[in-house]
Design a protein that fits this description.
single chain, 185 residues, globular
């Protein structure tokens, strides 16, 4: 008896074989980005500890955040590649976190520049850089919530505004946790 005759109609119905090309590209990029981040973290562990004290956060939190982003990228990429719901959730969390982090950086450019006496003219490039990053990640989140993508991940019944509200709430909580831990540093 062939494998096809052993599968049920339900198994065939659940399988979705029309992966959007954007999902494939994002999955590969997430896996590569996560792996590069973890390898770079291991190679520059002591330098990152020095940098964490320079930017005013604890080295445990800084190293933990980098490791978390690396593992999150790899896990989200694999989940996206396999078409799993958890891959969709992890990916929208990853991109929401990137938006939250870049918005935070965008709003603190002036404060940080005052601490390090950076001229106003060079600040414009930072505002543009973080603005482009924010826009890029917003567009990716928009893509992740499109109908063909949610159909691939079998998340069409999920209310996208609720999902985004949940992931942004977690991202803001992480940002607040980092700020609170920074007070004790």
């Amino acid at each position: 008896m062939s494998y096809l005759s052993k599968t049920t109609k339900e198994d065939i119905m659940e399988g979705n074989y029309d992966r959007p090309i954007g999902v494939s590209i994002l999955a590969i990029l997430l896996i590569i980005n996560g792996a590069v981040l973890l390898v770079a973290q291991l190679l520059a562990f002591s330098k990152l500890n020095e940098a964490s004290s320079f930017i005013g956060v604890s080295n445990v939190f800084f190293q933990g955040a980098l490791g978390f982003l690396g593992v999150l990228g790899i896990t989200a990429g694999i989940g996206m590649w396999r078409g799993k719901k958890v891959g969709w959730w992890l990916a929208i969390f990853y991109f929401a976190y990137e938006i939250t982090r870049n918005v935070n950086a965008w709003f603190t450019i002036k404060v940080i520049s005052d601490q390090f006496a950076v001229s106003g003219q060079s600040l414009n490039s930072y505002y543009i850089k973080y603005g482009i990053r924010i826009l890029w990640n917003v567009l990716i989140l928009y893509f992740m919530c499109r109908e063909n993508v949610t159909f691939f991940f079998n998340t069409t019944e999920t209310k996208k505004w609720k999902a985004l509200l949940i992931v942004f709430a977690y991202c803001i909580a992480i940002l607040l946790l980092g700020s609170i831990l920074n007070l004790f540093n």
